[in-house]
Amino acid sequence: MTAFEQFLQQLIIGLSNGMIIALIALGYTMVYGIIELINFAHGDLFMLGTFLALTLLGALGLEPSTSSGGAAAGGVALMFVLCPLFCAGLNWSIDRLAYKPLRNAPKLAPLVSAIGVSFILMNLGLFWGGLPMGVFGGRAAAAPKDFPALVTNTNLLGASSHIRFTGKELLVWAVTVPVLVGLTLFVKYTRLGKAMRATAQNPVAAQLMGIDVNRVIGATFLIGGALAGFASVVYALYNNTIFFQLGYRAGMDAFTAAVLGGIGNLPGAALGGVVIGIIRAMSDQYIATAWTNSIVFSLLVLILVFRPSGLLGARTREKV
Question: In the chain, where are the structural domains located?
Fold first, then answer.
């Protein structure tokens, strides 16, 4: 493999992982844009989505060695339906139980509440991983779980090609790109999307204009949770390993992507996710895996020094 082919290979890996990060980051940035809350529980919500996906495969008895192509495709389709619905419903419930009572409280109160919810969801994942199901491998609850490789790992560019682009990468791109484009069009052109933008700009004025702000916030949590559900299925099928602390790692990457692109900015969150994915892939290849986190956060600090609002964030004056 030549140096250029090696670079292209890392670029493909970085773009694929970056798109997954972008899906999670969109949930962060949507909630922050509406109510200015950093929902630290969002990453753990994504983690529970991966556990539900694995549980569904176990309940359906889907294994790569025993499942036909049609059965595997049906199982994947079912995951893409149930996991977003589960994550959306759970995210909405968290808002109603933990965040809504604190709408008018000091901003520190819902932030601490979000951290508490994050620990609750993480421990729920630990309990879930210890259930006596064969699909969990019969290992300790805290041990990583192997996710069945239901998507082909055959090189779509041909066996003679040194650059690998498999069905896994195709799945990531085929799911995330339409979701990102669809979400952008939804927020820009639909009535609910316009209500979201109005609420983000000035919730009091939006309420005076007849917008049900609580309904808009609830819809935002539903959509953000659904995005985490889509990301959980894509991640599990792409990486084939899940664990109960996955939400912390993925959540940190997604939150960093949202800040890097401009917190509250949807295209910025997508751009930040792709940038972080590429930086991680290039650092792993050309520097060292041990330095990757340091490089990512050093770049974040460097960018924020010169652009405090992020890559695509708008500069706004603080009203007093």
Answer: 3-306
